Amino acid sequence: MSKRFPFTWAAAGLGLVLALVLALGSGPGSGVDTQAARGMPLLTRLFIGEFGFLITVAGAFWGFKHRRSQGAEIATLIAAIACVVLAVAFLVMGIGLWTETFPSRPNP
């Protein structure tokens, strides 16, 4: 591993914490009614999802770029793959938030 703490590990850690906050902080209903006592508002969940997605995509990009320039470090590869998985999870959670908020209506 390099002497400095790489951004990829920080992005993976922060992404994991944000994913847990997003998954556990939604409350039991987690439907459109987000003003429950234990639920987070929809805008907060959307912001956490978008920020987590951007951080983990940047971490994956930086990790693969660092791996390409520094050689084969298995630790950097593991962190970059974790960032990719978390980015996909944030994407799916974000799309799920939008589709539960704005359900599709049939055209008249």
Report a brief summary of the structure:
This protein is an all-alpha fold.
Observed structural traits:
elongated, mainly alpha, 108 residues, 69% helix
Radius of gyration: 17 Å
Q: How would the global form be characterised? A: elongated
- Give the strand content: under 5%
Question: What is the helical fraction, as a range of percent?
Answer: 55-70%
Largest sheet: none
Oligomer: single chain
Order of helices and strands: HHH
Structure description:
There is one protein chain. With 108 residues, the protein is mainly alpha-helical. It is 69% helix and 0% strand. It is built from 3 helices and no strands. Helix 1 packs antiparallel against helix 2 and helix 1 packs parallel to helix 3. The longest helix has 29 residues. About 6% of the residues have low confidence.
Write the layout of secondary structure elements.
Blueprint: H1 7-24, H2 42-70, H3 74-101
